[in-house]
Sequence to fold (774 residues):
Amino acid sequence: MDLNFSAEEIAFRDEVRAFIDANYPKHLKGKVLREDLSKEDFLAWHKILGKKGWAAPAWPKEYGGTGWTATQRYIWLEENARGETIPPLPFGVSMVGPVIYTFGTPEQKERFLPGILSGDVWWAQGYSEPGAGSDLASLKTRAVREGDHYVVNGQKTWTTLGQHADWGFFLVRTDTSAKAQEGISFLLLDMKSPGVSVRPIKLLDGGHEVNDVFLENVKVPVDQRIHDENKGWTCAKFLLAHERAGIAGVARSKRNVERLKSIAKAEIGDDGKPLSEGEDFQRKLAQLEIDLSALEMTELRVLARESAGKGPGPESSLLKIRGTEIQQRLTELTLEAVGNYAQPFPRGLGSNEFPVGPDYSGAAAPIYFNWRKASIYGGSNEIQRNIIAKMVLGL
Amino acid sequence: MNFDYTDEQNMLRDSIAKWAAGQYDFEKRRAALASEDAWKTNWATFAELGLLAAPLPEDFGGLGGGAIDISVVTEEFGKALVVEPYVPTVVLGGGALKYAGSDAQKDEHLNAIASGERIIAFAQAEPKSRWALHDVTTIAKKDGAGYVLNGHKAVVLGAPQADHLLVSARTAGGQRDAKGVSLFLIPKNAHGVSTRDYPTMDGTRAAEVYFENVSVGAANLIGETDNALPLIERIVDEANAAYCSEAVGCMRMMTTSTQEYAKQRKQFGKAIAEFQVIQHRLVDMFMATEESYSMALRATIKLGESDTERARAVSAAKVSIGNASRFVGQAAVQIHGGMGVTDEMRVGHYFKRTTMLDATFGNVDTHLKRYAALSAKAA
Fold:
């Protein structure tokens, strides 16, 4: 057992760090910390990575990925967090891409993977429905086969950044008589198809991040179905397990801990001394760091298993639960650190006014409110506990 | 012992509930938030209902009520998510005048507060003071018979609507000296006063307030020169007690609406309220709310006791309600699922309001330390 990087891995780290330092657009740095990103911002960084061949680090080499080891991918995430870069295009690169290269036909891979890699096609997810959240398998959006296409009707919700989407991947019901999980198919759908409409949902932070998607007699060619008919749940489970692993966000949380420390140095406590010197705050921060270490070490163990060919299984639920709990505590502690300057909330009015209070203060409350989503999305933390109880503990 | 409200207090509660149900439902409130002037109509109603006059002395247009009356008002305001600056005007402004104002000052301002014609905001916090009430760098320099003020006050709640500002300023001593702080009541339109208005996280309004060579007369001084800190401590304790009751109102709504939602929301073929993990969370929310009400009530009743007893009871309530409301707010959002983080569900707005209240006049850490220090001194 050895926790140290090898000489090759250190060289790799230095290479990544130098690349990010030299190529990451400076004007995008603060935007990441404020969690205020446009489609153009995502694409700007994605295209730079694409030129280097690093747009999809986790993908196998044959599909345009890097073929990096799990350790290299870990280093990659660390360095990106350190450089405060924009995360990869979430729904294309991180989600539908792996489903397509794992379950798609050669034609489908050829048709869809290049657009994901280049960033020319923005993807969105059509999973949850108003009546199917935690109980995703109860979804009702119906796809009826008519010759060489399906006719799709239904409503999807919580479609993140769906307002930008060119294409979407949707879970639809193709067999109403089978058991819930067995009658679902995985369809790729052109968002410009007649009958697709997208409606924004405004969130507590005042932002427009998620959407309702309405599907009314949308025609979807059968060759846009991934995997066999009624095998969509297999794709969904595969994707959810991947999503959960990424959801731990260890590298980003480590970066945010550092950021919180710098805020605590700048903030003055009630005793007139820097907050960072106050014992209460020091303890909370120390506890958070320790919990984050436990998560990180556990994630590394899961990664090691994954490199040994044992793909992420139900234990990734642990990473999701602890990762999101830590993310949320970080937002909470940041809010607390900022004190009463957390109260001004000019965001959401669409103004570009200079911030009220220190420049780090304005985003603290919106981010705190917004990140309550983390224990809800990707399968709520209650559901993750059910998964561990059932799949890991056999209860 | 008697935990009953008087008939008058029950009537007060009912009148607010009735008004809120008719004139301040979620949609009307949302419209009011988006409008510059809608609060004026609501404020006029508060005057008509006697809410503004309730705790003020009868000699100056008030109804002679006390802290319990205020807690009845603010708890109902919490349920209705009222954003108008009631506590700044009535509890802080009205309190300072009631306890330390001259008869002339009371006559001029308390009558106007009671009739709805005077809105006061408390310009107390500063950019680097956090929640330390004695940390004051705004200077009031003696100038003939009057004073000249210079300084910057941070996140002044209700300042956009206010016509007068109650200002803590240093007339002697160093930045963090307890001695040397004085209180002034100044018209917001005085020469040299400027503001930057903005909404806060919960939809209320606040401002940064800047004083640049603002000349005021001795008649603007409230109470004794250099010795305002005990008065400030007192009115802030009273404001915190009122805000604690408001948080209880918010928590009551979060617990009941989450129970309702869990009974209606079906997943896995049954209402999610049938799952034990949800039931236990709902029970914990209920318990937290009941204990919060106890602590708010305790703080309110003890406002009339010695300075130390009053301060300890208020800090105790701020600590337990700060913790409880965070738990209840987060649990309410969680059980509502994705709907809980949307702007369209009321539950998230209660969560925002209690988050705001926790960060008003000291958070859990501030008051835990204050409580411990007061207890150590008393022992």
Observations:
- The two ends of chain B are 27 Å apart (CA to CA).
